[in-house]
Design brief:
The chain is an alpha+beta fold. The protein contains 7 helices and 9 strands, in the order αββββββααββααααβ.
């Protein structure tokens, strides 16, 4: 039973972090707020971009050519544009998870059940946390260890979602067992009940896959955005000698891009 319920979230959670064909590696840190993007290596600042156009390396403001200036501006703007992309995918993924879990509990316990309501409340709190984390106006820091030194996405984030589901299942086990027992009793045929539950699981999986198609497309676009930033970084390193030994972002196994 727990596996059936948890699978609904696992189905949607894989799109929250990275597309299967996109391997994003941070080899340094990025600190971002409304006015500044600062790039770190070994937890120490190495260069920053002010107001999307002023490049400062080791405390020195560089005089840039028109070509270099255009590249710096595009690089900074691309990084900033990726923030709402990540936020949108994360939030929509959690919303999809809430929808899937409510489908499951409504089927088992009836519409308006307290278990689904409690689970929705827990996941909504997580949704709000994601929204607050990805706010350039408030600022945030991300490096190879995650956000602000925490592994916010990736395996730990998936585990957090799963723990919410598992807690909901534990807290509602009595109600679930009663509901299952009643359905088995009324059906009078354990095999028929098993078939019904398998059909129910397949139905949820099919519905969530269909509703998650748009989210998958956005994850693909996010991969392209990250790849574009990586390519801009490489061009910037080629054009600005002060940055040639610095590498913050590497994206592998991504679709072809043009900039």
């Amino acid at each position: 039973m727990k596996t059936l319920l948890a699978s609904t979230l696992i189905l949607t959670s894989t799109s929250l972090y990275a597309h299967d064909s996109c391997d994003v590696e941070l080899e340094g840190g990025i600190k971002l707020d409304r006015n500044v993007i600062e790039f770190m290596q070994d937890k120490k600042p190495v260069y920053k971009i002010l107001e999307n156009n002023v490049l400062i390396v080791d405390g020195n403001t560089l005089d840039l050519t028109a070509s270099q200036q255009a590249l710096v501006t595009e690089y900074a703007a691309s990084i900033r544009a990726m923030v709402p992309e990540v936020q949108t995918i994360a939030i929509e993924g959690i919303d999809l998870a809430v929808e899937g879990m409510n489908l499951a509990f409504d089927e088992l316990l009836g519409a308006g059940n307290s278990v689904g309501a409690d689970l929705t409340q827990e996941l909504t709190a997580l949704r709000d946390e994601v929204k607050n984390r990805f706010d350039a106006d408030k600022g945030f820091y991300v490096d190879e260890e995650g956000f602000a030194g925490e592994e916010f996405f990736g395996e730990e984030f998936e585990q957090r979602i799963e723990s919410v589901v598992e807690k909901a299942v534990r807290d509602s086990m009595g109600s679930l067992l009663i509901a299952v027992g009643q359905q088995m009793l009324f059906s009078g045929d354990p095999a028929a009940f098993e078939t019904k539950m398998e059909t129910f699981g397949t139905k949820i999986e099919t519905e969530m896959e269909a509703r998650g198609a748009e989210l998958e497309a956005k994850a693909e676009q996010l991969c392209l955005s990250a790849a574009k930033i990586d390519k801009l970084e490489e061009e910037l390193k080629t054009q600005v000698s002060e940055l040639e030994a610095i590498n913050i972002l590497t994206v592998k196994n991504h679709p072809a891009i043009t900039i």
